[in-house]
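A reminder before we start the practical. When you read a complex entry, don't treat the lines as separate problems. The point of joint prediction is that each chain is placed relative to the others, so the output describes one connected object in space. Small molecules and nucleic acid strands, if listed, are placed in the same frame. In the example below there are two entries. Take a minute to note the order of the lines before looking further.
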Amino acid sequence: MNVPASWYLVLAAVLFGVGAFGLLTRRSALIMFMCLELMLNAVNLTFVTFSRTLSDISGQASVFFVMVVAAAEVTVGLGIVVAVFRRRSSTSVDELSELKG
Amino acid sequence: MVAATYAVPAILVFVTSALLILAGAVGVISVKNPVHAAICLIMTLFGVAVAFVAQSADFLAAVQIIVYAGAIVVLFLFVIMFLGVDRNMHVSVEPLVGQRAFAAAGVVITVAGLITLMATSHWVTGATSVTGKLVTGNGNVKQLGTAVFTTYLFAFEATAALLIIAVVGAVLLARRERATTEEEVNA
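Here is the predicted structure of the whole assembly.
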């Protein structure tokens, strides 16, 4: 018998929290992207857990699409980081304050 | 004790994946060197793959390793190497006063809210599944493939367009501008 779904759900919630904390506190755009991946993985874990609990393959199909979107997001995001680095020689998000009102 | 009623292997697998996930996640947000952060990210992704296998999502576990650990993290490492490791990133510097405390408070409230929601909600909605009951134990790759190529066909085709757009956009963004243009701008 597998462990109860709530264990995995709590683990996913904690992983989401750790990722969110990193996203809010780290300055490097690269590290912020990695924290975003952590949060996406937490959501994927929740999807798979509910897929098992509710006995529905739709949860796993959703994870499949989340992975595709994450891949696209990282591709474009890292392209932006490279483009910004060319101008500023830094990946710190604190330097990007030109649009500040 | 609750744990006594569950099989020991299942608990061991859960504990292993939880340790991998949490150690990797804490590593990502705490280490200074971006390369080390990427390695820690791989650890978390492996832990999530273990959790996927434990919950009979075999195909997704394979994709998790191939796409995430294989492609996305390599892309991260490639960009880190391309830009050069940023050595002047101070983890301890806090430009906004009290940012850490506020972030920690917000995260604690969010996680506590999520766990409370899980503890107090009833998940059985009575709605019937659109794609049929989940096959467990013997692998459900076929079932997932059928669902993706029938029920979710439109979404699947849309992701194809999304990937093409993302690749073209990334090439456009990362392309070096022509030298003449830069000279004109400087002049």
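Discuss with your neighbour: Chain A touches chain B through 73 residues (CB under 8 Å). What might explain this?
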